[in-house]
Design brief:
Two copies of one chain form a homodimer. With 356 residues, chain A is an alpha/beta fold. Chain A is built from 13 helices and 13 strands. Chain A has three domains: 44 residues, lambda repressor-like DNA-binding domains (434 Repressor (Amino-terminal Domain)); 130 residues, Rossmann fold (3-Layer(aba) Sandwich), CATH 3.40.50; 157 residues, 3-Layer(aba) Sandwich (Rossmann fold).
Chain lengths: 356, 356
Amino acid sequence: MTEPVTLKTVAKHAGVSYQTVSKVVHNQGQISPALRQRIQKSIDELGYRPNAAAQALRTHASHLIGYSWSLERKDHSSFILDQFQHDIVEDAEDAGYHILLVPRRTEHDVDSHFRELVKARRVDGFILSSIEYNDPRIESVARLKVPFVSFGRSHTSDATACVDVDGRAGIAKAVHHLIDSGHRRIAIIAWPDSSRVGNDRLAGYLDVMSDAGLPVEPAWIVRGTGETEYGYSAAQQLLAIPEPSRPSAIVTVLDSIAMGAMQAVETCGLIVGRDIAVTGFDDMPTTRHLKPGLTTIRQPIREVARAVLSLLLAQVNGEQSVVQPLMLSPELVIRESSQGYGHVDHEKGALSTVTA
Amino acid sequence: MTEPVTLKTVAKHAGVSYQTVSKVVHNQGQISPALRQRIQKSIDELGYRPNAAAQALRTHASHLIGYSWSLERKDHSSFILDQFQHDIVEDAEDAGYHILLVPRRTEHDVDSHFRELVKARRVDGFILSSIEYNDPRIESVARLKVPFVSFGRSHTSDATACVDVDGRAGIAKAVHHLIDSGHRRIAIIAWPDSSRVGNDRLAGYLDVMSDAGLPVEPAWIVRGTGETEYGYSAAQQLLAIPEPSRPSAIVTVLDSIAMGAMQAVETCGLIVGRDIAVTGFDDMPTTRHLKPGLTTIRQPIREVARAVLSLLLAQVNGEQSVVQPLMLSPELVIRESSQGYGHVDHEKGALSTVTA
């Protein structure tokens, strides 16, 4: 790397003092137009640019945003978080900010990790995702009194800025659609009660079943962890329930769980969509092109990212900020996996996509 | 945010000059042990920490690494890049660095984007991924004479530090395995010739077929873009080839393409693994638990990330660095999708995973 052009280089080139150049660069003090012009000429000729570190020192703003998510090396692709990161990077760039990755590493002391970044004035604020119950990051960052917004609600985050997708409303849409299609015995493959997101989605199922006056058999609610394999074994368990209790529809809380459930239905010699309806969550591209196409819930990640960044920048700029959680509604995407019951008038194999 | 503790605060607290504190903090000049102790006590009591921006100004090192990848909002989850980002973030943190996201946005002037970051001394170096033929980023960053390492080879990057996975060797392993299993008519579903990665993988197929003296029919090489849907239609095309030319095995360059191919085989009333062998690439978790399990090629991403970071830090620290591309070998993971031909002695449904 060639020696960087500094204020001193410019001063020497223009034949003036370091302080005079500094005044021109920072628009301070009285400088004659002629002198200003001479210094500007040197700045242009040398290609001088104020250094980011120097600017950060002066303005106390780094123009960096720390982005924290869970760094567990998950054995699955996190489609939603991929899209979210993509979108916040793009929006941040448009606003003149860069994203600094600050993963949550469980083995580290979360508190000191954030404190170091703030004390060193590395970042102007934080975006937190992969939020779980009593997330220690929320408390840590709140204590540091720096701007932050979370994607996802924590148990304890009532008074902090947060944007979330209404998973409860999403699952409710799926269950409504199944009831409208004639299903009465609807089961759900869900997550354990330690999962905040899972409980939220399960609540949507219980809401609608109750509102519709439909009884829920305990055996219809399967809770466990995993993805395709879990969906496969959970669906096998549901399909083994003897008639007349056997469910005719299976709601799942994740597309890859739905994928396993669809395989289990087929292994039993039944046809997905015609004999048993299956729904997913996320509208993951891999499952989008399955045959039959998977009915699922699509999260408005583009809008989530935009809202997160705008709430954060409002805080960074000292504007008053919303502290009520901002809830965005997901949409139902209807495909063949839920459409066979009662009406088989759709063309076999055609991807008839309806959004509600 | 409370007023930060600065050198001045420490000086006032210790009753000494700003310069004296600075000497202690930066280990410069002669300070008596008693005075040093007194100042250190003030530093500890006040919790003073040198500011990152100030340190960056002094040392000309930001301890930030720019990570550039393609920001196209791909309609699929990039499992490999997820793992890569995960691993470089973790390794960078261990080495005292943070990762700054510097996406490649096609609509922007790549050159000025990188130049700004370097001129502002925002980053100490770059990691580039999603490398394609004649990638403009390689030339831009090389011209700036800053440390950088790419994950993936570019056409023009002979003399730059780069780490890549040997996709050619990977596909070669899959084809060898199919030949060893008794297959002779082996087809491939590949990518267009504009894809650097795709050409590399296709070369591995052609190498082994030629070495084994097996003829390759033009109709056995399908090239196109897409994932599951593309795999489905490409396999349909291959299965429509009349006997005796119809392939008994289909190699694909991506797991989700293999997934579509497996669906097409089943739609034809054939059984994957028994009637037609199918192989993938990446060992994606979603396809890992398919029935039958997918034989695939696993990329050593953990090792790629480690090599990329260590090559980069060697450059940052002014050590001599390797400029020959560092090639890492992927491994073959054998599951049921390729095992039915000639030997059916494995238990049906069991996940017998063998790595070669």
